[in-house]
Design a protein that fits this description.
It is an enzyme of class 2 (transferase). By secondary structure, the protein is an alpha/beta fold. Helix content is 39%, strand content 21%. The strands form four sheets. It has an eight-stranded mixed sheet with strand order 3-6-2-1-9-11-12-10, sandwiched between helices. It has a six-stranded antiparallel sheet with strand order 14-15-13-16-18-17. Bound molecules: adenosine-5'-diphosphate and aspartyl phosphate (PHD).
Length: 441
Amino acid sequence: MKVAKFGGSSVADAAQFKKVRSIVEASADRRIVVVSAAGKSSEESIKVTDLLMAVEKLRDAGEDYQPTFNHIERRFIGIRDALGLNVAIENDLQKIERLIPTCTYDYLVSRGEFLTAKLMADFLGFQFLDAARFLVYDGHTVNYGESINRLRDFLSANSRIVVPGFYGVDEAGEIHVMARGGGDVSGAIMANLVDADLYENWTDVSGIKMADPRIVDHSRRISELTYDELQELSYMGVSVFQEEAIKPVAERQIPIAILNTNHPEEDGTLVEGTVRRDPNQLVTGVAGKKDYVIISIQKYQLNKRFDVMAKVFSEIQAFNVPFEYVSSGTDSFSFLAKRSQLAGKLGAILAALKKCGLDRVKLEKDIALVAAVSHELGSRPANAGKILDLLNDSQIKVHLVIQEGSDIKVVFGVANEDYEKTIKKIYRDVNLKAKKLRMAI
Ligand SMILES: Nc1ncnc2c1ncn2[C@@H]1O[C@H](COP(=O)(O)OP(=O)(O)O)[C@@H](O)[C@H]1O
Ligand SMILES: N[C@@H](CC(=O)OP(=O)(O)O)C(=O)O
């Protein structure tokens, strides 16, 4: 059995719904369909989830949310009518509208998936199964035992169902919404719950490219990836697949196929536990994210000064910022955080560090992190030096290098303005260089 998850772009309008139906009908094994909320299309520049979030913000600010909600209503009724469906979506829309003044954030933003799944179920002739009826969370983790028990009541040998992604329920039965991009996670959880043979993730690109196709034109497709390579790429910013969606399928060794709804005939990316690799390929993929801040502290023989480090950590802890820690030598240590997470706190953090008896505190803003990911880096960490040489040769200033011994990635901190250039450089030159080096041997 296959679980097929269709992302927001795949269900953005009636034309996309039709593509989904031909894909689903092409294989009798596609019995569980998971959908995100209608996303962006040529006509619609905002995802339904973002519209729902806007409604919630307007409501909380005491402003008029009605025009935004009317827009959402028109989108769903438009899809329903264009497909000639009979499903009485007005009743659901009226109920949601009635609840807006008092409902939770989670309930409201989950309604995009709920409504999209209702329409899709009707269009495919599948049963609609609300995730709220079986996908149970204990705090922030899925309760798989309870979820499987509940799901059993709804599934029979030949059920065909459509499930809304992005949410489940907590122990009290209240809607629990996932992090952004959570539709991928729902698909992965479904695949785990039914022990699927394959988890298909249908999106608007034919698989994962070696580099973000918005930065590198005609970026090459990665035909095969391991779960841990995908994990690192997703963590480092490849938005195609949500990082948290890997564990539920990797645990059961269920392969993931990342495929294109707009070009189902094209090959995508297959993700499994192990893959065969071209030995000329030094880097499997490159990804990154912008807008980081590095705070570096310096103190003579800091590596031996546990008293100083303890004071620094205790000061830093008070600010509740998710920092990454990078040991950068005997005398220095760096803290790395997203600029958005430091908002309003940076001045106070620097002031607190000044009280710790350090020789120097250095601040570097507008830093982008770019990661090269590959199993080759895990087995031969020295390869990272080759990439660093290449960046130096092209006058890209590297502010920071993060590489742990057996890690399958190396991360470079560069200026935000060098972000695209760094990605292009690694994409274009690293594998080429590796090839030339090997040929020269
Ligand atoms: N390395 C990459 N390979 C492929 N796509 C990428 C990569 N990095 C970023 N992307 C972007 O991810 C997008 C798909 O993710 P997303 O918009 O979340 O899809 P969906 O709406 O199907 O869930 C692509 O359109 C592409 O612009
Ligand atoms: N609709 C949710 C969940 C999701 O996964 O969406 P998409 O498949 O469009 O990335 C979001 O926008 O975050």
